[in-house]
Amino acid sequence: SSAINPVELSAWLIDCERKADDKTHFSVMIVDDDEIAAEVYAEAMREFGMVCRVISDVDDVIEAIDAAPPDIIVMDMQMPKATGIEVASVIRQSRSTLATPIVFLSAERDLDVQFSARSIGGDDFISKPINAYKLVERIRMRATRALALRQMMESDGLTGLLNHARFKDRVEKEVERSRRTGSPLALCLIDIDHFKSVNDTYGHQLGDHVIQVLASTLRNSLRRTDVIARYGGEEFGVLLLDTDLDQANLVIERIRERFSTSPIPYEKGELSVSFSAGVSSWAMPRDAASLFKTADVALYQAKRNGRDRVVT
Ligand code: GH3
Ligand code: MG
Ligand code: MG
Ligand code: MG
Prior knowledge:
- Its EC number is 2.7.7.65.
- By secondary structure, the protein is of the alpha/beta class.
- It has helices at 6-19, 35-47, 61-67, 84-93, 111-119, 132-154, 164-181, 195-202, 204-221, 245-260, 288-304; strands at residues 27-31, 51-55, 72-76, 102-106, 124-127, 185-192, 227-230, 235-241, 264-266, 269-271, 275-281, 310-311.
- The relative contact order is 0.09.
- Bound molecules: 3'-deoxy-guanosine-5'-triphosphate and magnesium ion (3 copies).
- One magnesium ion binds at residues 191-192, 195, 234.
- One magnesium ion is lined by residues 191-192, 195, 234.
């Protein structure tokens, strides 16, 4: 994996900010004891398509965040039960909100207070009063940046797919969910066949290109709700929601057929590549670990049986 170049990163972030629509669907939480004033800001945000909640009692903040984690938090400084800085410090302690941007909104002009707001991890400090639309713009920029960063942290650099760690998290979450709802879930592990010889014969660059082609084949063939990841070097993971083993087998088989019969053009000709896949469904195993184990065994069997096939 390559290191992040700070210059490229900031150029890319600026680009993201430019591309962001006027109508964005960020979810914003405003924490402010002055509910009436906060609602004025909230209304302006809603006009721009944001989903906005006002929490006026600091005792409700953590519960509200757990119920629906916001993309960004706007925090008043002076509140009767606790200061905004105190509430923010608590929010910063939880792993799930560690990176959620917190924008302080305050009439406080004391530089020391502004400094402590920054030092506990505040992302911005905005002085009240501020025009509601100016506030919306500041919030939109902060949230866009934070979402773009998060997306980059969670995705694989070569393909833009989810990376290994995030994929495992998602599978665990979805297994939990389907355990509750009873809806089926299928996991598929895909490994490109004889990829070493692709690299050896055609070079690493074309190897990388093959990985990208398979990534877009998967993206174009699956539903938006399905979860696709680059699981390892030339290995992919696919989580099919609301899909049982038979359906998953059909879906992956169709993709296998399409991929292995569509040679990949390159400057000197065409290159035929295939993959093997192992599929498991959650109805058999009881947790994410055994879901992975079963799919892995099936993949191994697909390789043993001659590759270019799907085994359930
Ligand atoms: P098999 O059919 O048994 O899977 O054979 P294989 O050659 O694909 O074997 P294996 O899965 O063990 O080898 C994977 C190879 O993929 C090894 C590694 O050099 C190569 N590889 C891993 N990541 C990348 C990558 O990001 N780019 C390129 N070009 N090659 C990669
Ligand atoms: Mg206040
Ligand atoms: Mg492999
Ligand atoms: Mg391989």
